[in-house]
């Protein structure tokens, strides 16, 4: 028991000493709160462990900051790329709109295009028609000039022959043709027919109406119906055989002829000059010729759907001016009726004839 009491006394003394030493230290040194905290931390953790932990924390913070910056940069780059892409697309769309213009589906543009096409076609048609008209006018002018030149040559020839006969002292032999010419001249002198027909005279005049080529028959029908409906003084409408682009109207005045041709489709107007009868006489008077065609003749068809086909004449109808033929190259002989002037004899079998 005594030993235990001694130990307790010694412990108490040591504790009192420690307390005194601490008090002395506290009095001798002024310790701040931060230092106390550091000391407490040092007591809890050794100094080596604290340094490593602090370094790890700093590295982690730096890595986090770097990652954030990287993500920000990537986002900014993506946004910039998207903006550039959108700008490029807009520029491409603008360029396409400039090249193409308005969209093709717009009805206004389609109407403009169709109108342009129609205008071009009309211009082409008008130019072609003008060219045809010029050619036709040239043809008829040349034809009329040829007729006049032939008449002049014939007159000069007749005068020269008369003068020659007068010099020789021979009386001209009066043939039937000369007699007929003389009679005609005498009749013309009596009636005053040598004078050219003009607008002022009261005689019927002949006017040339220009038409579209190959539409002469239609124009004739319209003109005759117009003249009958309006009761105009149009006496005849003539279409000479073989002449294209013109028909002739015999009327009391130019006004009647113009009224008859007014509003007629394919009619292109009257020529300014009056046509004298002697200029178109050869076109109107048909001379009947006897055709030397016999039965069993070998002929060639020169017009119609069987043009250039060889045939054999089996029957002749001179009253109707028709012949019945059989095609030589046909497998089955079929009789075909054609006009006499549509065939040309190329061979005649004397034995059969």
- Structural class comes to alpha+beta
- Give helix and strand order, one letter per element, not per position: HHHHHEHEEHEHEEEEE
The overall pLDDT, averaged over residues, is 77
Shape: rod-shaped
The Cα radius of gyration reads 63 Å
Strand arrangement within the widest β-sheet reads 8-7-6-5-9
Main beta sheet: 5 strands, antiparallel
Q: How much β-strand is present in the residues?
A: 5-15%
Using DSSP, what is the number of strands?
A: 9
Tell me roughly what share of residues is in helical segments.
55-70%
Contiguous low-pLDDT stretches (5 residues minimum) are none
How far the N terminus sits from the C terminus, by CA atoms, comes to: 192 Å
Tally of helical segments: 8
Describe the fold and architecture.
Helices cover 57% and strands 14% of the residues. The protein contains eight helices and nine strands. It has a five-stranded antiparallel beta sheet, with no helix packed on it. Strands 2-3-1-4 form a four-stranded antiparallel beta sheet, covered by helices on one side. Strand 5 (298-301) and strand 6 (310-317) form a beta hairpin. Helix 6 (216-230) crosses helix 7 (254-261). It is rod-shaped.
